[in-house]
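User: Sequence recovery, please. Input:
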């Protein structure tokens, strides 16, 4: 496509789709016109892929996830369709700003963090590989809340990505599925009829997900909840206006908001309803499609693989058994066997507070037939294994992790260490009964978004150096290693990084009114705010470093910018205090005449996918400092490595594998191992001892306590300092001294920029394994037993 053809397509859509004249069009109109012009190209490829799938008898993969953190889609589409020259050229002819148009797109935040972003990377990789697949999720009207700061405090505001028309989705009113809740069950022998008391409709919206070079396209199908019976005219005519609209409002509530956490009791019922709504609609759709092609449900595991993303859709086990047994008349044990052979479950966390359970009373009320089937599944599992305990239904609760495990043929962890910990802790007994069931599939990230598109300077340099085949064959980055001692290449690598840092500095100056020096270390910690991720360890080290500079302001300090980003659960008080402390510290430190040349703290609000794309290419140092054993994998760690940042980190999650890949000498390791953490926790008084042994730590804590950062309210951070001094479950104090040491090694290493950059080159060159294409191939061979539909170009085939 030429720029002038693109220009015609844009103008056509501006006039005939948006009904606007070029003279009066706003950025929004241009953005939509460009999106539709690009979308037209995608649709042809997408249809071709869909036709190929229907004609091929190939196994389909279904990815069920309550979250898809897809972010903006326009640039992704342009890059994957290789339309960048056409688009930029066309906009130039129209005297429009390409970047401004891209930035106008709302960031679709249909997920909380790692789990949701992983699902989005997987969708893109499955399309790039040409695997016939479909993602199923919920079309939340409001995604993850928007974060803003008021006097340093986090304020949540509703996110409204759908307040404007969404350019990428196609409404499918013909795909409307009835979903029931509650009611009663009538048993007929082994089978039963379920008569729900409440009904609503799941309506589909499809978004095409196009792979690299537009070779293949899959569908992300998101469900919207709608009332079964619309508006009650009779009530309205009686003057009961609110009551007339009530059923509609209630039904729509189901797809209204993404749950930002699992820490509240309130609203839990709605969450369970969301989970069932999502899972039941998706399974119906899968079975309907299967039955349109085959007539023997015993073939289901051969033709469909259904991946359960964490336990959120784990009700799929009993629901699939219900469909097969109650509705299709299959024998119960056979139905369980077929369901198991079709389903597999990914675990994303071992934190006890995040493992889902549902009270039997609530579950029995909302899903009476499922409750009965869960007991029968437990009973069958006991007979199969000769065990007496290990039930999904136990102690008055349904344990969704156990249910997911016993209803899956494979259960996977998301990094090597995490998978081993699954086997030795949370799933120990189940693993002993089913030693082949747990497998590892270390996470990955899509290199199209997380290098090619977000870092054009570096990706351009890489393509100039080794050609562009790395984009869908990331291991080719290893060819860069040969250039690690080539001075011209290292200089060019450094120049790309520096230019990215200059861009970020300008953005920080404009949006946060803080000036930062692009020649300082850009030290970045971006992720959800959690005690286990230990942003407070980073904050304490920052304070200690600041104090050291104040003691000796004329020494030759290595300048640093500490950049934080992330949202705290709205009702996670401790995490919100960590956010406020970081902001309070920024206020004090950025205006300290003794230190501000050497140390700045910035915390841009509302960390999301788009902000990640802006920050990561400009990072020198990636902070991956969770308590060992707590971060299942991490995927931010991979994005930083790919973009040539060095990591300071613990032996946790995929850090372990990243360090093995890049080499121990190219990674700033510190802290206790997972085993040491478990041992240390048994000793009392570990925090007090660590504080007594390191005066820097004691002094940093004392600074917070004294109110230096909160002069108007000296006791503001009492709970943080008390917790760290007396409990410190996450071992912040015990790891402080070693973290401090590693940070000083960072300072020393950064003074030799050439050597630092050489190390950065090696990080990028050895990051090939971190591609989500590799992860998906692992799922295909170990779990799904599925094959790509096509080698080469689908449109050409
Ligand atoms: C649980 C719930 C429960 C109901 C309310 C909403 C909600 C939201 C999230 C969760 C659990 C989140 C688990 C999670 O995100 N784990 C992260 O998964 C990443 C991808 O595998 C991994 O890289 C991170 O280490 C892990 O923390």
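Assistant: Recovered sequence (797 residues):
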């Amino acid at each position: 496509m030429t720029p002038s053809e693109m220009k015609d397509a844009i103008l056509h859509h501006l006039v005939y789709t948006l009904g606007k004249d070029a003279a009066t069009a706003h950025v929004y109109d241009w953005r939509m016109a460009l999106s539709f012009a690009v979308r037209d190209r995608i649709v042809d490829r997408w249809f071709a892929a869909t036709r190929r799938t229907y004609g091929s008898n190939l196994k389909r993969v279904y990815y069920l996830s309550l979250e898809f953190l897809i972010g903006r889609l326009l640039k992704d589409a342009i890059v994957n369709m290789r339309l960048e020259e056409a688009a930029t050229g066309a906009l130039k002819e129209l005297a429009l700003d390409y970047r401004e148009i891209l930035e106008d797109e709302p960031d679709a935040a249909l997920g909380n963090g790692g789990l949701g972003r992983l699902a989005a990377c997987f969708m893109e990789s499955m399309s790039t590989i040409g695997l016939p697949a479909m993602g199923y999720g919920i079309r939340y009207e409001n995604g993850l809340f928007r974060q803003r700061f008021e006097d340093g405090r986090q304020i949540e505001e509703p996110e409204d990505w759908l307040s404007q028309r969404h350019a990428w989705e196609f409404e499918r009113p013909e795909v409307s599925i009835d979903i029931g809740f509650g009611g009663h069950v009538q048993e007929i022998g082994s089978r039963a009829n379920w008569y729900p008391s409440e009904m609503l409709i799941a309506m589909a919206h499809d978004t095409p997900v196009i792979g690299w070079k537009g070779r293949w396209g899959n569908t992300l199908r998101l469900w919207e909840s709608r009332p079964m019976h619309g508006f009650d005219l009779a009530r309205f005519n009686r003057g009961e206006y609110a009551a007339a609209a009530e059923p509609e409002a209630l039904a729509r509530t189901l797809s209204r908001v993404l749950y930002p956490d699992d820490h509240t009791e309130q609203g839990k019922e709605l969450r369970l309803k969301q989970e069932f709504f999502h899972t039941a609609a998706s399974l119906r759709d899968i079975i309907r499609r299967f039955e349109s092609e085959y007539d023997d449900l015993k073939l289901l595991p051969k033709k469909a693989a259904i991946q359960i993303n964490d336990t959120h859709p784990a009700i799929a086990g009993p629901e699939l058994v219900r469909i097969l047994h109650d509705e299709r008349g299959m024998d119960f044990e056979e139905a369980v066997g077929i369901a198991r052979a079709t389903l597999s479950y990914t675990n994303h966390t071992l934190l006890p507070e995040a493992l889902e359970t549902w009270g039997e009373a609530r579950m029995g009320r909302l899903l009476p037939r499922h409750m009965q089937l869960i007991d029968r599944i437990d009973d069958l599992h006991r007979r199969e294994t000769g065990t007496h305990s290990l039930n999904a239904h136990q102690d008055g609760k349904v344990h969704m992790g156990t249910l997911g495990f016993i209803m899956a043929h494979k259960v996977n962890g998301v990094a090597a260490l995490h998978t081993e910990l699954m086997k030795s802790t949370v799933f120990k007994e189940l693993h002993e009964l089913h030693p082949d069931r747990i497998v590892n599939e270390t996470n990955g990230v899509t290199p199209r978004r997380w290098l090619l598109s977000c870092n054009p300077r570096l990706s351009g340099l890489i393509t100039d150096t080794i050609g562009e085949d790395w984009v869908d064959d990331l291991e080719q980055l290893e060819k860069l290693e040969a250039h690690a001692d080539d001075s011209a290449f290292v200089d060019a690598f450094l120049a790309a990084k520096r230019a990215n840092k200059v861009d970020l500095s300008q953005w920080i100056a404009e949006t946060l009114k803080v000036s930062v020096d692009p020649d300082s270390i850009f030290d970045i910690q971006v992720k959800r705010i959690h005690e286990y991720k230990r942003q407070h360890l980073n904050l304490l080290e920052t304070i200690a470093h600041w104090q050291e500079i104040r003691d000796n302001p004329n020494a030759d300090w290595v300048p640093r910018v500490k950049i934080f980003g992330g949202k705290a659960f709205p009702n996670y008080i401790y995490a919100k205090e960590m956010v406020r402390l970081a902001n309070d510290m920024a206020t004090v430190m950025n205006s300290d005449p003794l230190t501000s040349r050497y140390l700045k703290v910035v915390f841009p609000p509302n960390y999301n996918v788009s902000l990640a794309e802006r920050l990561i290419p400009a990072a020198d140092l990636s902070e991956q400092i969770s308590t060992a054993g707590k971060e299942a994998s991490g995927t931010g760690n991979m994005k930083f490595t790919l973009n040539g940042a060095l990591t300071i980190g613990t032996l946790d999650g995929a850090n372990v594998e990243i360090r093995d890949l890049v080499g121990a000498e190219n990674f700033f390791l510190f802290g206790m191992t997972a085993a040491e953490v478990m041992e240390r926790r048994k000793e009392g008084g570990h925090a007090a001892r660590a504080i007594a042994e390191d005066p820097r730590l004691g002094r940093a804590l004392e600074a917070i306590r004294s109110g230096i950062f909160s002069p108007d309210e000296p006791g503001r951070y009492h709970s943080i300092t008390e917790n760290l001094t007396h409990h410190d479950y996450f071992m912040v104090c015990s790891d402080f001294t070693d973290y401090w040491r590693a940070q000083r090694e960072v300072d020393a290493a950064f003074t030799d920029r050439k050597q630092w950059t050489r190390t950065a080159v090696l990080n990028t060159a050895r990051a090939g394994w971190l591609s989500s294409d590799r992860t998906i191939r692992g799922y295909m061979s170990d779990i799904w037993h599925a094959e790509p539909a096509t080698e080469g170009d689908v449109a050409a085939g």
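Residues 55 and 293 are 10 Å apart (CA to CA).
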